[in-house]
Amino acid sequence: MVTAIGPATLLRPGRGPDPSVDGRVRVDHAAVDRLAALIATLDDLRPFDFTGDLFPTVGDDGAVAWFAAATLQQFGFWYERDGVWAGSMVAPIDGIDRKGSDYLWAVYRRWASREPDAMQPTRQADLTTGEWHQLAADDSGVDPFPRPDLAVDPAQAYGRAIGEIGVTADDMVDAASAAPRPMHALLTLLDHVGGYREDPLRKKAALLGVVLRQRPERFLPRPAGILDDAPPIVDYHVQRSCLRTGIVIIDDADLRAAIAARRVLPAADEAAVRRAAFEAVAALSERSGRDMGTVDWFLFAMRHRCPEATVPLCAECPADPACAHRVELFQPVLRTTAY
Q1: Residues 39 and 116 grouped into a single domain
Q2: Which whole-number Å values give the CA distances from 209 to 68, 140, 190, 205, 321, in the listed order?
Q3: Helix extents (H) in the chain
Q4: Per-residue pLDDT for 61 more than 80?
Q5: Are residues 189 and 88 located together in one domain of the fold?
Q6: How high is the pLDDT of residue 284?
Q7: What is the CATH number of the domain that holds 147?
Q8: CB of 106 closer than 8 Å to CB of 91
Q9: Which of 214, 244, 277 is the last residue of a domain?
Q10: Is the pLDDT score of 10 beyond 90?
């Protein structure tokens, strides 16, 4: 729209133009190759199947609706003070201290047990901030979410969108499953759904697709003979892993210092790091020969050994032999509902 008159350039045959590259951050392809080679040798590495106490039981008729409503809330489990990252969200729920995404899963599991129709579009569309405070309360009665208002907006947007379209989460997944490329079809459908469509990198949509593919019920099938994979699921844990392992390099000294100091970033600075991480993780999957769900679980699970608030346990980390050990680096700090 700025390099030609009208939409002619966008309507030309072939792929559209690539997003502009921010020269301050880049992918280190040699480091990607080293880490990919290591991942390829990990015979016991498996993608997570999203079962257990935090999730619906296998065979639960409401599982698809539950995951669709809960996954869109997977973002922003951290606090800020005076423009600096100030700690992870950890709180007791049902007698167990849970961190971030695990706390969110527990909230939705408890909500569904109390209110069987809670995940339906009309209920999600009608959610209020006052109700959220009650639903999300920890064992002391306090809502620990850093920005509870940001949780209500995506729920309402999701409920309104699929309600207006006249479908349910199960309808969308059924339609996607019948397509030649089920993952691609689901992501395309979610591009029309509030709570998912706002992120150009589709983090939550890709996560939902991987969840539904990896559950024992195989809600989203793998087509025979072709690779129908999800895009990289780039959240802040994955970005931290990318920076510390060295597969993403920040060449700009000011940006690198801001990342190390855990300061809240301008949106353009965060986007530079996240775009590079997206490219790096995509290359990691391609070169390791592992699907995106497996690569994502490898990077996401590193949060236990390379955490945000304590000293990294490098000797216990499977990435250690291929890691650059840039442990002074952090993830981009920016409040967003995307991740």
Answers
A1: no
A2: 9, 34, 10, 6, 31
A3: 29-41, 63-71, 100-114, 121-125, 129-135, 148-165, 169-177, 182-190, 203-214, 236-245, 253-260, 267-288, 292-301
A4: yes
A5: yes
A6: 97
A7: 1.10.340
A8: no
A9: 214
A10: no
Mean pLDDT of 50-61: 98
Closest CA to 89 of 274, 97, 262: 97
Question: How much is the pLDDT for 2?
Answer: 56
| Domains in the chain, number | 2
Range of the domain at 87: 63-214
Q: What is the mean pLDDT of residues 120-136?
A: 97
Is residue 91 located within the same domain as residue 192? yes
Residues 189 and 68 grouped into a single domain = yes
Q: 285-309 b/e with 16+ CB inside 10 Å = b? A: bebbebbbbbbbbbbbbbbeebebe
Tokens of 151: 């949780």
Q: H or E segment at 97? A: strand 96-99
Q: Is residue 270 domain-shared with residue 208, that is, in the same domain?
A: no
| Whether 104 contacts 138, CB under 8 Å | no
Those residues whose C-beta lies under 8 Å from the C-beta of residue 106, and which sit 6 or more positions away, are 54, 93, 94, 96, 98
Is residue 52 in a domain?
Answer: no
What tokens does 3 get?
């390099």
Contacts of residue 306, defined as CB under 8 A and 6 or more positions apart, other chains included, come to: 240, 241, 244, 312, 313, 314, 317, 327
Tell the residue number behind the tokens 């309402």, with chain if given: 156
- At 88-115, the pLDDT tens digits run 999 999 999 999 999 999 999 999 999 9
pLDDT (0 to 100) of residue 7? 67
Distance of alpha carbon 141 from alpha carbon 131, whole angstroms: 13
Q: Are residues 164 and 301 in the same domain?
A: no
DSSP tag of 263: B
